[in-house]
Amino acid sequence: MYEGKFNAALKDNPMQVIPTDWVMAxxxxxxxxxxxxxxxxxxxxxxxxGGGKDEFGIAPLRGTFFDEPILEIEGLDFKKPRKSAAFVxxxxxxxxxxxxxxxxxxxxxxxxxxEEHYACKALGMSMASNKRTKxxxxxxxxxxxxxxxxxxxxxxxxxxxxxxxxxPACVCVxxxxxxxxxxxxxxxxxxxxxxxx
Length: 197
Hints:
Layout: H1 20-33, E1 43-47, E2 57-62, E3 65-66, E4 70-71, H2 81-91, E5 97-101, H3 108-117, E6 122-125, H4 144-155, E7 160-161, H5 168-172, E8 175-176, H6 188-191, E9 195-196
Parallel strand pairs: 1-5, 3-7, 5-6
Antiparallel strand pairs: 1-2, 2-3, 2-4, 8-9
Helix pairs in contact: 2-3
């Protein structure tokens, strides 16, 4: 995959983090499970927009099934964290783990409101963090962005997703931005200071 152009017949970029075959397999698993009970909502990814042009989105995960994204309702003021927090509460079920993107700062207020007013345990996640951690593999990740992307790669070993759930090209195009860093070693995802998305 290159520059977001999706064609299953194309050869993978050598540095592509998530192999196209894995994505296609997830789509096939999704087709088989489409009409089945996918179980309780176990986690959600929340992408705030702070009232900007991008849509406020909630991406539910039901066990190993990526459910259909829940997007903002026209007319709702997402500039106010309390309104965004209320929108999240209205659209979740089964007490899932809440993972909120706080990279641009938009999610911080939502995390606070969910914890203070709804007694929810919300995890603020920042792609911009340079904090290094070690994953299940032996290498050290260069930053949180690399760690999150690698976790997504690991998830695609078993997850299922319908063709209307996500954009395959957006997943397959992820590749590390390798810049000269002579003192850093590790896997491609760990070497990246950030990944091209």
